[in-house]
Amino acid sequence: MTAETKEVLAIVIFGFTYLLISGRRLKILPLNRPAAALLGAVLMVACGVMTPERVYRSVDYDTLVLLLGMMFISAYLFLAGFFDWASDWILRVAKTPQSLLLYLICTSGILSALLVNDTVCLMLTPLVVAVMVRGKLPLAPYLLALALSANVGSVATLVGNPQNMIIGHLSGIPFLRFSAALLPVAVVGLAIQYAVLLFGFRKTLAQVVIHRLETRPRPLDRRLLAMTGVVLGLVFVGFVAGLNLAWTALAGGALVMVLARRDTHEVLKLVDWHLLVFFAALFVVVEGLNGTGLPDQVYGKVRGVFGTTAGSQGWNLAWFSALGSNVFSNVPFVLVAGKWIGNFADPELMWKVMALATTLAGNLTILGSVANIIVVESARGHAEVGFWDYARFGIPVTILTTIAGMFILVLLY
């Protein structure tokens, strides 16, 4: 097989895989996102584009190990009853529907910065739905608040979302230095999101009253919660100290496993194995595309658009990344465009810009991030959130948070 034939096959397989990933399940080939990515990886080998050895080398195991470690810790927090307790506490403490919205945004944003945003949404959505139903409150504002804040809050740390984890591994930026630049972006972004939702749902929220009902949340296992909280604190101390992110997180998860003395089958069932398979296969498919040289050719065509100064490059990369994340999805975009960062005037600033833009762009539409899909699908049966129902809030939140975030990032830098 000639090199040209391999390049054509790699591009076709990538395009086919992306079509399956980005679209809804096709009737002809009803595959979900992980299965579609896995099919693409297999096709890369079956068609002779990549060898099995190259496939193994293309997988970013650090990112997968980091995801796995944070999922273990999240699972033990769930088993301890933390997420049930947090949702019930918010309902009891909130005095008005408006303050309830604020508390939910803050809780979701903070948890998403500490844990993986997709996992937070997976565990919080059923609890939020139950709380809102018990309190006889409209679901739409609070579901949107959960999804939007999970994305915005996750921008603050290298473990907040998968694309940040990849950026952390590729860039080598220390954990604390990354958060020092992007934590203020997350805080201002959450404030903007609250203002947009408060204004958009002002009539709806003004007409409802929180009904105080007796709630029966999952019993709180204080011993397990304290143990997991201490381990999570130690993990973040390791992050700040500059230890390897992936193995520090996995060590924390393993430590909780040993100390908790719980049936580990229960914990392993809570790990999102589908997400791990999705990213592992996606690394393979993207590497197959990178091997064709097409991403470098694309960069050669568009590099003049970015400008020559760090400031102009930052702003232009932000909008380019936001657009690319919604066209190609944020993780594939980071994997492809990450190869370009070394050519910019200030690579470290560009990595932070890419993290900011690809994360906040996830709020643009309901399909912009996995977190959004998790919230909407988990709430199906209780509330239907349509494409425009989401977009009419997601679009202004994305534009305003990206502009404000870029001003903060450039100013602090």
List keywords for this structure.
mainly alpha, 413 residues
Describe this structure in words.
The structure is a single chain. By secondary structure, the protein is an all-alpha fold. The chain has 21 helices and no strands.
Question: What is this structure, in a nutshell?
Answer:
The chain is mainly α and 413 residues long.
Topology readout:
Blueprint: H1 3-22, H2 33-46, H3 52-58, H4 61-79, H5 82-93, H6 97-114, H7 117-134, H8 139-154, H9 162-171, H10 175-200, H11 202-206, H12 222-240, H13 245-260, H14 264-268, H15 273-290, H16 294-302, H17 310-328, H18 330-337, H19 347-360, H20 370-378, H21 387-412
Helix pairs in contact: 1-2, 1-15, 2-15, 4-9, 4-12, 4-13, 5-6, 5-7, 6-7, 6-8, 6-10, 7-8, 7-20, 8-10, 8-20, 9-18, 9-19, 10-21, 12-13, 15-18, 17-18, 17-19, 19-21
> How many DSSP helices?
21
Average pLDDT taken over every residue: 85
Q: What ranges have pLDDT less than 50 throughout 5 or more consecutive residues?
A: none
For the sheet with most strands, the description reads: none
Distance between the termini: 49 Å
Helical residue percent? over 70%
Strand content: under 5%
Radius of gyration, CA atoms, in whole angstroms: 21 Å
Number of strands: 0
